[in-house]
Amino acid sequence: MNKIKVAVIGATGAVGQVFMWMLANHPWFEVEYLTASAARVNQAYASTVHWLLPFEMPHSIRDRVISEFSAETMKSRGVQIVFSALPASVAAEAEPLLRDMGFYVFSNASAMRYFKNVPILIPEANIETLELIEDQGYPEKGFVVTNANCVTTGLAMAIAPLKKFGIKEISVCSYQSVSGAGYPGLSSFDITDNCIPYIGGEEEKIEKEIKKILSMDPIVDAYCVRVPVMFGHLEAVWVTLEQDVSTESIIDAWDKFGSVSHLPSTPGHPVLYDSEPTSPQPKQAFWGTPKGMVVYTGRLKKRGNRIGFVLLVNNVVKGAAGGSIQNAEAFVEKYGLI
Ligand SMILES: NC(=O)c1ccc[n+]([C@@H]2O[C@H](COP(=O)([O-])OP(=O)(O)OC[C@H]3O[C@@H](n4cnc5c(N)ncnc54)[C@H](OP(=O)(O)O)[C@@H]3O)[C@@H](O)[C@H]2O)c1
Fold it and tell me: Do both 139 and 159 map to the same domain?
């Protein structure tokens, strides 16, 4: 089978590296083109990237050369899908341009997330919103599909299976790792031996995105805290349900959630509950198969119709690059690109 040619734009950042790692042996996609900022053009990937992931860089990507951002060259080299790991300000210009040139763009940036005809896709939670690409003009034209802010992704994964019980109110406090701020991110002077109870724009994103993803309108309140951890965001969540539901029913709903396990990047059980009182922890961020794609829940509590729990999401994998790759797989499968 010929693989689908893809580009990774922003391939050297925290999210871009995860794209390069996950796509190195992907069964459907092969990286034909990669870009970073102008200073890195014509350099070999391994010689210029500051590799952050807690395992070795795949050998097949070490000598890949970073190209300038040229949509025309990407076209001439047969690229169909573009994975974007650009900062939002850069994505705001690049992504509409790529869409208008007929590319299928899967983005991590927030630039286009709130456009009415642009889905914030999480295949397990809202696969039906993929059809919005037809409102953007597909198949005659290109499109942009986004994934959510990383905290929202974890939250949506844990809440989607509970939607059937009626969601009245969500309150979340996050404990977010430093990789969530990109590389080089925060100064070590600010975050070493410290926690910072403010992440600009983050709380507003969660409050807005969870409603769009799950097509519902509960009260949502968030506090976001940066903590001195490399990977993985923890979230302590309280949900007020319309029904009085047993903890067994909540665990059962998480256990049965996961209807898209036939996609290569989707785990058999995308939400895993662990009753061990010290779980989940950011140390588990790269657990699971595929690595980093499982959302772990634990610490379940019930107070009448209020349910409390803690979750862990890998912010750079399921919450970013892995989520985008899964979205592209869902598109390829539904629209038969192969
Ligand atoms: N980190 C996360 O956990 C996370 C989670 C979900 C979503 N996101 C979103 O994903 C995107 C990438 O995040 P990140 O954490 O990977 O950021 P990052 O580490 O700062 O990486 C940004 C990437 O974009 C490139 N870039 C920067 N300015 C550019 C320009 N003017 N022209 C071309 N390329 C440029 C960088 O290249 P150089 O290396 O050459 O500078 C780098 O490859 C952001 O929109 C972010 O909000 C991040």
Answer: no
Q: Is the peptide bond before 218 cis (omega within 30 degrees of 0)?
A: no
Domain around 235: 150-314
Please name which of 70, 7, 20, 24 lies closest in space to residue 50, comparing C-alpha atoms: 20
Cα 91 from Cα 178, distance rounded (Å): 22
254 alpha carbon – ligand 1 mean position (Å): 32
Ligand 1 mutation pick, 61, 108, 286, max ligand atoms within 8 A of CB? 108
| Co-location of 225 and 93 in the same domain | no
Which residue among 8, 9, 15, 174 is best mutated to probe the pocket of ligand 1, counting the most ligand atoms within 8 A of its Cβ?
15
The radius of gyration computed from the CA coordinates of the chain, to the nearest angstrom, equals 19
Is the CB of residue 105 below 6 angstroms from any atom belonging to ligand 1?
no
Are 142 and 274 contained in the same domain? no
327 & 277 share domain = no
Residue 93: partners with Cβ closer than 8 Å, 6 or more residues away: none
Check which CATH number belongs to the domain holding 42 and give it.
3.40.50.720
Task: Kindly state the tokens that stand for 48.
Answer: 């210029």
Reading the chain (338 residues) residue by residue, the pLDDT tens digits are: 799 999 999 999 999 999 999 999 999 999 999 999 999 999 999 999 999 999 999 999 999 999 999 999 999 999 999 999 999 999 999 999 999 999 999 999 999 999 999 999 999 999 999 999 999 999 999 999 999 999 999 999 999 999 999 999 999 999 999 999 999 999 999 999 999 999 999 999 999 999 999 999 999 999 999 999 999 999 999 999 999 999 999 999 999 998 677 899 999 999 999 999 999 999 999 999 999 999 999 999 999 999 999 999 999 999 999 999 999 999 999 998 75
Using an 8 Å Cβ cutoff, are 116 and 71 in contact? no
Query: 85 C-alpha vs ligand 1 centroid, how far in Å?
Result: 5
Sheet holding 4-9, edge to edge: 29-35, 4-9, 81-84, 104-107, 143-146
Which residues, in sequence order, are bridge partners of residue 307? 239, 302
